[in-house]
Amino acid sequence: MRDGAGLRHLLDTLDDAPLRRIRGRADAEDAALTLTARAVAAAAAHRTESRGCHHRGDHPDTDPHQAVSIGITRDADGRVHAQEEIAACC
């Protein structure tokens, strides 16, 4: 089960992962998977509720005010950040 401390630890671990030169397909796939993991972890850390398959031990209830999409940006260092929430379309 997720919680804020575990998600912060995951983000710190991913941020500490060394950047590598992409020399082939496997390196490109590794970079894409790492970026995806960063984006998912940032969005999960930003969502302070449990919703669907996202269960947080420190926030076990669903918050109707958080029925929104979370935008993700990436800075020049490759770190990802949760953006202002975007109203859900449906």
Automatic annotation (TrEMBL):
Residues 46-67 are annotated as: Disordered. GO terms for molecular function: oxidoreductase activity. It comes from [Mycobacterium] manitobense. InterPro entries: Fum_R/Succ_DH_flav-like_C_sf, Fum_Rdtase/Succ_DH_flav-like_C. Gene3D superfamilies: Fumarate reductase/succinate dehydrogenase flavoprotein-like, C-terminal domain (1.20.58.100). Residues 33-73 form the Fumarate reductase/succinate dehydrogenase flavoprotein-like C-terminal domain. It comes from the Bacteria. The lineage of its organism: Bacteria, Bacillati, Actinomycetota, Actinomycetes, Mycobacteriales. This is Fumarate reductase/succinate dehydrogenase flavoprotein-like C-terminal domain-containing protein.
